[in-house]
From TrEMBL:
GO terms for biological process: electron transport chain. This is cytochrome-b5 reductase. Its cofactor is FAD. FAD binds at residues 96-97, 112, 114, 121-122, 163. Keywords: FAD, Flavoprotein, Membrane, Mitochondrion, Mitochondrion outer membrane, NAD, Oxidoreductase, Transmembrane, Transmembrane helix.
Amino acid sequence: MELLQSHRAEMITIAVALVAVVGATAYYYYLTKKPKGCLDPQNFKEFELVKRTQLSHNVAKFKFALPTPMSVLGLPIGQHMSCRGKDSIGDEVVKPYTPTTLDSDVGYFELVIKMYPQGRMSHHFREMREGDYLAVKGPKGRFKYQPNQVRAFGMLAGGTGITPMFQVARAILENPDDKTIVHLIYANVTYEDILLKDELDNLAISFPNRFSVYYVLNQILRCGPPLMNKAMAAHLDNLGYAPQMQFQF
């Protein structure tokens, strides 16, 4: 009788140990297995617009649902995707965009779009309503970010060029193992043109020692060595700052 009880206790111990091992293995797999992204680099896939939020007279935030609540877009940090639509005369148009969301935002992705009067893809987004679908293909881009690959990033952004910068900054700052510092200069014509200002300000408040943002409107003052002034003048020209909007000490 004692032998039978001992054998039974031994079997129970083994069973408990097996359950623990299986459970631990499953938990490790859950933590380490990266979900497969929804994007296809070769073929367009359609995603439903579930929410449209107007941010200003010509800027809106578009929220698109992924196939399941736990799905991730699968877009590497700093890369973009191609969006396909139709212009005002019905011709197909494809343009690159960078979401403001990360893969930590599961189940959806968001695009912040500035719609220009004559923009071909702007027309498509202007006409989109909740329940419509957007065709997307990707990822695309050469930028590949690895945590701590540099001590600090300096970023220059103008207008809608803020979206890839915001995505990279978020990824850096929200990763507790990444110690990279980010300095952002963001240029716009008017205060109302500043996109994602609340989000940028929140990053600056949440990470005061690692993130700083400087807003520039209308005019630029430059002072420094000749080579720096020459390089910055070229960058500012590309951002749309005419010579009369720049002053060099």
